[in-house]
């Protein structure tokens, strides 16, 4: 199977980490710009996984889920709930924040502060757990999907609000995994979140979940 | 809407009705199911997948890793793209993509009906209701699939049956 990631496309972080953790025989292709890989989609959609039997996965969470499932794991209700929350709430909010920071030049602390509702939901969910992970006592696809959404903007646990100690610890634990570091350096090449600028500039101005555009 | 749809799904699966509430989320509302055991579950696709397992009809979630991922991908597509289509252009894009995707398919994932067919059918119902006869012909593969799913035993529930004309009445572009 072939995994396609776009240069500077932040959604690549989670699929590359999931591939390194759970997938075998996956050939990674880095595309210089957004290209149409999925034949039935009118717009280019990356990352995309070509399963080489006529089927394609074109949503990054589905790609991560597939790698996780194919290594023999099962996805429980709680993991499903994290993946859905990430797709519906976290991803739109973080994409808008990353855009505001990288393209519109807003201060990182400011845009992170605007995400406090999502971040404190994560921090509170980690409370009272014996392990640093979101589900059960081990790393699951939920950690990778949520981490991969946060990473392009956060990069370092020290960017997270001081009082969210559990969240900081979780973020650091996942970031330190060798497979996650590999995914990050493959895509970001130590360039920081500015590597996402050329990609983001071509995207429409994101609409935040509250329905207001991020500018003005 | 989402709660009504989950109640329809329960009936379709032969389950008793659960306790639902809604939580505000952005401009919309997100369903919450209070379960007997353990904490409540939040979100349409999470709850729907849970109901399928409760009904012991796991085959509706796909049988292989690949099918399972494809089913969940289309559930996410339903929530993130179909439900968020706010302009005519968004709706056209969704219908175009689905029409292209369904060209050589009877079901959304694999060779049998899955939860993806059921939830995309529920999600598209208001959209298809608003289409003219000519538009239904433009999205001919979506129409064929939709007509098939609405006639599939148990799925339609309270939703009105929509009419599709078998023979084209507008000249085809091809």
TrEMBL record, chain B:
Which GO-annotated molecular functions does the record name? translation elongation factor activity
Per the record, its GO cellular-component terms are: aminoacyl-tRNA synthetase multienzyme complex; cytoplasm; nucleus
InterPro entries named in the record: AIMP3/p18_C, Arc1-like_N, EEF1E1, Glutathione-S-Trfase_C-like, Glutathione-S-Trfase_C_sf
| Domain GST C-terminal: residue ranges | 50-169
TM region positions? none
Coarsely, its chief localization is cytoplasm
Xref: CDD domains? GST_C_AIMP3
Which positions are tagged coiled coil? none
Q: Where is this gene product found?
A: Cytoplasm; Nucleus
- Gene Ontology terms: biological process: positive regulation of DNA damage response, signal transduction by p53 class mediator
- What are the protein's UniProt keywords? Acetylation, Coiled coil, Cytoplasm, Elongation factor, Nucleus, Protein biosynthesis
Q: Which domain of life is it from?
A: Eukaryota
Query: What Pfam family is a match, any one?
Result: Arc1p_N_like
What is its biological role?
A: Positive modulator of ATM response to DNA damage.
Q: How does it assemble?
A: Part of a multisubunit complex that groups tRNA ligases for Arg (RARS1), Asp (DARS1), Gln (QARS1), Ile (IARS1), Leu (LARS1), Lys (KARS1), Met (MARS1) the bifunctional ligase for Glu and Pro (EPRS1) and the auxiliary subunits AIMP1/p43, AIMP2/p38 and EEF1E1/p18. Can interact simultaneously with MARS1 and EPRS1. Forms a linear complex that contains MARS1, EEF1E1, EPRS1 and AIMP2 that is at the core of the multisubunit complex. Interacts with ATM and ATR.
What name does the UniProt record give this protein?
Eukaryotic translation elongation factor 1 epsilon-1
Q: Which organism is it from?
A: Xenopus tropicalis (Western clawed frog)
């Amino acid at each position: 199977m072939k995994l396609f990631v776009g240069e500077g496309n932040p959604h690549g972080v989670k699929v590359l980490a999931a591939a390194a953790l759970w997938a075998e025989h996956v050939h990674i292709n880095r595309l210089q710009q957004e290209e149409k890989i999925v034949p039935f989609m009118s717009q280019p959609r990356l990352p995309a996984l070509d399963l080489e039997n006529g089927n394609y996965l074109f949503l990054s969470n589905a790609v991560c889920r597939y790698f996780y499932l194919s290594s023999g794991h099962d996805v429980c209700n709680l993991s499903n709930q994290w993946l859905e929350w990430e797709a519906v709430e976290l991803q739109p909010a973080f994409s808008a924040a990353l855009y505001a920071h990288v393209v519109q030049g807003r201060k990182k602390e400011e845009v992170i502060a605007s995400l406090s509702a999502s971040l404190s939901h994560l921090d509170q969910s980690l409370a009272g757990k014996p392990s640093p992970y979101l589900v059960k006592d081990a790393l699951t696809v939920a950690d990778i999907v949520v981490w991969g959404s946060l990473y392009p903007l956060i990069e370092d646990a020290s960017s997270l609000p001081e009082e969210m100690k559990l969240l900081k610890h979780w973020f650091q634990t996942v970031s330190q995994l060798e497979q996650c570091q590999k995914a990050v350096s493959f895509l970001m090449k130590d360039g920081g979140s500015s590597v996402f600028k050329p990609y983001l500039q071509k995207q429409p101005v994101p609409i935040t979940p509250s329905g207001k555009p991020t500018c003005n | 809407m989402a709660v009504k749809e989950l109640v329809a799904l329960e009936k379709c699966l032969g389950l008793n009705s659960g306790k639902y509430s809604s939580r505000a989320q952005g401009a919309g509302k997100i369903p919450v199911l209070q379960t007997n055991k353990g904490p409540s579950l939040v979100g349409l696709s999470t709850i729907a997948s849970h109901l399928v397992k409760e009904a012991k009809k796991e085959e509706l979630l796909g049988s292989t890793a690949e099918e399972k991922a494809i089913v969940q991908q289309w559930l996410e597509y339903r929530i993130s793209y179909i439900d968020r289509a706010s302009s005519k252009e968004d709706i056209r894009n969704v219908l175009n993509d689905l029409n292209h995707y369904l060209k050589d398919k009877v079901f959304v994932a694999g060779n049998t009906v899955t939860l993806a067919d059921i939830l995309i059918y529920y999600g598209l119902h208001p959209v298809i209701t608003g289409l003219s006869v000519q538009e239904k012909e433009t999205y001919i593969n979506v129409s064929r699939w939709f007509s098939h799913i609405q006639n599939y035993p148990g799925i339609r529930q309270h939703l009105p049956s929509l009419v599709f004309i078998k023979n084209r009445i507008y000249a085809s572009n091809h």
